[in-house]
Every structure is written in C-alpha cells, then in structure tokens.
C-alpha cells in the first residue's frame, strides 16, 4: 500500500493526520504538485482527476477521495 502525497497540500494532510492518529505507517510517494507531476501520463492512469491524495492498494486499486481513504483505513485498523 502507498500514499501519494504532497507535503503542503491540505487534502493529503488530512489523510496523514488520520494515519498518525491510527499509529500506522504507510509508505509515501511524493507527487510534486508545484512541478505539475499530477499531470504526468503515469499519474493520470492512477488518478484521472490528477489530484492527491491517492491510496494505492497492493492489488493496484487506487482510492482518490479523502473520506473513502479514511473509511478504508478505519476498516483495516478499527482500534484506536
Ligand atoms: N477529491 C479529492 C480532492 C483532492 C484535492 O483537491 N487535492 C489537491 C491538493 S489539496 C490537488 O491534488 N490539487 C492538484 C491540482 O489542483 O492540480 C479529495 O477530497 O480527496
């Protein structure tokens, strides 16, 4: 599982806070929004909306909405 992130962007920060509150660690892939990396062909395949965050599962599934990512992580790690 990987989280596509950009350090100063508010929406991925919401997911990082959620992960931290859960005491979990998820590998981060930085998508440099300042360099327009969200518009590269490879990233468009992952998320056609060209936004972060994206949670990529080990089977290649990509989740690109903050509430859905958090609900997925909550199901995986209900405690705390
Ligand atoms: N639907 C997404 C929206 C995420 C979103 O708007 N992300 C911004 C960063 S905070 C983004 O990636 N912007 C890229 C751009 O505007 O090109 C969510 O709420 O999870």
Walk me through this protein's architecture.
α1 runs parallel beside α3. The chain has one domain (about 1-75): 3-Layer(aba) Sandwich (Glutaredoxin), CATH 3.40.30.10. The chain has about 80 residues and is an alpha+beta fold. It has a 4-stranded mixed beta sheet. About 35% of the residues lie in helices and about 15% in strands. The protein has 3 helices and 4 strands. It has helices spanning about 10-20, 40-45, 65-75; strands at about 1-5, 30, 55, 60-65. The chain is globular and about 35 Å long. The protein starts with a strand and ends with a helix. Glutathione binds near residues 9, 65 and 66. Glutathione binds near residues 9 and 50.
Residue fraction in strands? 15-25%
What is the H level of CATH, i.e. the homologous superfamily? Glutaredoxin
- Give a list of the ligands: glutathione
| CATH hierarchy class name | Alpha Beta
Q: In total, how many beta strands?
A: 4
- Rg over CA atoms, rounded to whole Å, is 12 Å
Instruction: Estimate the global geometry from the Cα principal axes.
Output: globular
Q: Gap between N and C termini, in Å?
A: 20 Å
Secondary structure: elements and pairs:
Layout: E1 2-5, H1 10-21, E2 28-30, H2 41-46, E3 54-56, E4 62-63, H3 66-76
The structure holds glutathione.
Write out key terms for the chains shown.
3 helices; binds glutathione; four-stranded mixed beta sheet; Glutaredoxin; 4 strands; 80 residues; alpha+beta
Task: Give a nutshell description of this structure.
This protein is α+β, with helices and mostly antiparallel strands. The chain is 36% helix and 15% strand.
